[in-house]
Structures are given as C-alpha cells and as structure tokens.
Amino acid sequence: MLYHFFMDHVDQYHFLNIFKYITSRTGLALLTALLMAFVFAPSVIRWLKDHQGKGQPIRKEGPESHLLTKKGTPTMGGLIILAGTIVSALLWCNLYNPYIWIVLFVTFSLGAVGAVDDWMKIKQQKSDAMSAKTKASLQVLIALMAMIAVQYVMPETYHQHLALPFFKNVLIDLGFFYIPFGLVVIVGASNAVNLTDGLDGLAIGTIIIVSLCFMIIAYLVGNHVFANYLQLHFIPQSGELSIICGALVGASLGFLWHNAPPARIFMGDTGSLSIGGALATISVITKHEIVLSIIGGLFVVEALSVIIQVVYFKCTGGKRIFLMAPLHHHFEKKGWTEPTIVIRFWIVAIIMALIGLSTLKLR
Fold first, then answer.
1. Which of the two ends of the chain, N or C, has the fewest CB atoms closer than 10 A to its terminal CB?
2. What predicted TM-score, i.e. pTM, was given to this entire model?
C-alpha cells in the first residue's frame, strides 16, 4: 500500500524513487515486521496467557522434563509472525504481482488451519485435537489451489518444469506430475517445520536462516542481469518475493526474542504450518524446490527421523532406532541440554544453508 502511494507521488517528489528498488523495500519490510513484533508481542502474549488457561498441552510421551519446564506456556505465537509478515508485505510489496497473493494465500490459509488446531488442543487439552486426516486434507487442498495458481501465472517455459541445482540450463518437464510434486513440497515442508518446533528457539532460528537464503534467491532469480550472470532460470516478477522473505525474517527475529529459552510463548501450528508452506511456495515459484531441501536440510532430517522411527517400529514389532523422535528429542534423551541442542542444530542449519547457496554459483 505504501509502495503504491509513494509511486503515485514519485513525479512530484523524486526522492521517492528509492522505493522503486526491491532491496530498499525488503529492508523496510524487515524493519516493519521486526518493530511490529517488538511492540505488539508482549500484549499478544498476555492476551493468550489470559485466554488459554493451562496453555499448550504437553505430550506425556515426550521428554519428562517438558512436563515441568514447559507446562503453562501459551501457544499460537505464530500469530505474531503472521501479522508482522502479512502487514509488512501489504505495505511494501507491489500488490499487482500475482506471486505475492499466492504466497500470502498459502501463509494465511495454513496459519488459519494451524490456529484452529492449536485452539482445539487448548480447549480439549489434547495434543492431537484435530485428526491427522482432516489436517492433511486441508493442507493438500490449500497447496493444490496454490499450485494451480502458480501454473496459471508462470511462463509456460517453466510452469511444469523442475530445475536441477549445480546444472545450468537443465529443466525436467514433469508435465501433469508437476502439480503432485508441488503438493509434496508444500505439504512436506509445512509438516517438517512443524515437527522441528519442539525446543525453545530451534524452529524459529532455522526459519530465519532459510528465509534469509530465499530472500537472496528470490532477488537473484527475479533480476534478469543477475540471473543471466549466474546462469539461473529467470522468473519475471519473482524478485518481489524477497520482500516477503525479509518481512518473515523481521517478524521471526521479533518472535525469537520471546521464544528464546526459557520460552514465554510457543509458535504452535499457527506459525510452523504457515511458514513452512510459505517458504515451500516461494521455492516452487523460484524453481528452487530441490535447493529448499538442502537449505532446509535440518527440517528434512527431523521429518525423516520421525518417518524412519515409525516404519522401523512397525516392521520390527516395537523396536526403535532413536531413543525418541523427532531427532532433537533423541539428543535430549542422551542427556544434551536444550540450549546445546538448539545451538548445535543452528550450526548444522547454517552449514546446510551455505551448501544450498553454493548452488547459485557452482554450475
């Protein structure tokens, strides 16, 4: 909105030309979201604490220490991140860009699904209030609508094609199967972030790292000069998505201030489902779906640890590979302290992010 207001008056006030640049607006979106989180988060936390009573229910089958250290902590802190991200995007993005609305649709819709699930958990004091089938069906429906919209607005050269990292000018035409592939990316990323959200600061810190990477990727892919120089696939208008990534970084930093150990609030499904879905949708639009699995490798490993544990448990009649899944709980069981796990996992996330970013140049 502010972007359009300033552009309407740029002929009268030439200094407003600065707002034409995506880099300027990305920085402003980051600062706007960060400021919103700092200003409004304390009030949101107090309101949620007053209305949630016992707070987020703690799984009895989880680490025993959580029953003592995390009991009574309010959830749905993702509202802070969603509000900062969406408002900043609306203020600083070019709202005539269709990709902006697709990503915001996914963010808001998955956030709404997560919020309903969180609220049901609180009211019923159950960790599985919404059935897995219902949640998965809603996620698939939202992802399907997003993929159809992406197919409609993306140039035909790319809309059914998968780009491979480390290879220039390589596109694999998946045809009709690109939509199911996109569903797996969006729904999978949404759930992977959700599974990682189990320790104070773990998921949100990793989200900041991944969002920073895709802020860079979206800008480069959407800039014809840089895309040509780096031999990336140029996607017109996709550069505007770096503003959403910047807003997500700012809002996440503000949330981390309150989610750092010991957390005053949990992100909940409200935040994890929506942010995972948003980042995945951006990766689809920028043709960096595989790179997302590298940069967000920590999310992938956490999700795989759950899948492996469940499959092995069923195939062996009750035996386990990990002491507990997701993987961060395994290390808790081994005696690692929560801050140690979080910081070491952040280090792994940074390494994975650097490997993922290297694909931009190593071709």
1. N
2. 0.94
